[in-house]
């Protein structure tokens, strides 16, 4: 029989060596597998991820524009300094104390360049119309009476013949508004109508014309129209 007590324990070196071999074999396979997986993962990342290009910092680069510089303008030299006036020098020529100034003839001879003065209202010569400054124009006060005289003075022959017309008359109205003179300005083309118009305006009465606060005599123009029915 085999004596258990006399049994010598077998060395365990072979068991340890076998475990190390198994570990080495497993480590080698895990190592190369990890290297392969890492390499594959890196290639996949670089292949499918967007490009990691570095952006250019700063403003956009624009082409340089060439500017033609105009030619230089020559600046003219400054003007010469003004000369100081010469000092007065006493003349050695002796002057005569008795100086004779010729007579001025401009005052004595008044040139005929100015228009004639307006004639006053009390002047006898009122045959020519002239302009008078007024601030208030004269107004006709008796229009109905003038119309009645116009119907009365209308020449019967011209009226029956259906001939009419308009005569423009100049009237000289004094400071009281009374007609002092009348002249035909524009004829109607018929002497009978013109003479009748001069008779009609003699009954006209006007409000006095004024130049500020003063009544003045003026010439006015008035149209007398004859209409045949």
Description:
27% of the residues lie in helices and 14% in strands. By secondary structure, it is α+β, with helices and mostly antiparallel strands. Among the domains are: 13-48; 143-226, TonB (TolA/TonB C-terminal domain), CATH 3.30.2420.10. The relative contact order is 0.12. The model has no long low-confidence stretch (mean pLDDT 78).
Regions with pLDDT < 50 over 5+ consecutive residues? none
Strand order within the widest beta sheet: 2-1-5
Largest sheet: 3 strands, antiparallel
Name of the top-level CATH class of the domain at 143-226: Alpha Beta
Examine the coordinates and then state which fold CATH places here, giving the name of the CATH topology of the domain at 143-226: TolA/TonB C-terminal domain
Mean pLDDT: 78
Protein structure class = alpha+beta
The string of secondary-structure elements, in order, is HHHEEHEEE
Share of helix among residues?
25-40%
The number of strands is 5
- Large-scale geometry: elongated
Based on the structure, what is the oligomeric state of the protein chains? single chain
Strand percent estimate: 5-15%
CATH superfamily of the domain at 143-226: TonB
Give the termini distance in whole angstroms: 186 Å
The CATH architecture assignment of the domain at 143-226 turns out to be: 2-Layer Sandwich
Number of helices: 4
């Amino acid at each position: 029989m085999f004596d258990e007590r006399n049994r010598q324990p077998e060395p365990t070196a072979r068991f340890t060596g076998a475990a190390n071999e198994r570990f080495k074999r497993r480590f080698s396979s895990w190592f190369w597998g990890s290297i392969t997986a890492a390499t594959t993962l890196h290639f996949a990342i670089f292949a499918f991820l967007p490009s990691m290009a570095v952006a250019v910092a700063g403003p956009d680069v624009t082409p340089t524009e060439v500017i033609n510089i105009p030619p230089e303008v020559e600046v003219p030299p400054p003007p010469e300094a003004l000369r100081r006036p010469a000092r007065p020098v006493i003349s050695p020529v002796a002057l005569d104390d008795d100086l004779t100034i010729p007579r001025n003839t401009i005052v004595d001879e008044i040139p005929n360049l100015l228009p004639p003065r307006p004639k006053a209202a009390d002047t006898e010569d009122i045959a020519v119309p002239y302009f008078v400054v007024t601030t208030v124009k004269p107004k006709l006060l008796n229009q109905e009476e003038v119309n009645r005289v116009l119907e009365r003075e209308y020449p019967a022959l011209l009226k029956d013949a259906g001939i009419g017309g308009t005569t423009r008359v100049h009237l000289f109205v004094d400071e009281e508004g009374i007609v002092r003179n009348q002249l035909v300005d524009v004829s109607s083309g018929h002497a009978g109508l013109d003479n009748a118009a001069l008779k009609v305006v003699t009954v006209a009465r006007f409000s006095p014309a004024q130049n500020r606060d003063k009544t003045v005599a003026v010439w006015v123009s008035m149209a007398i129209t004859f209409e045949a029915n």
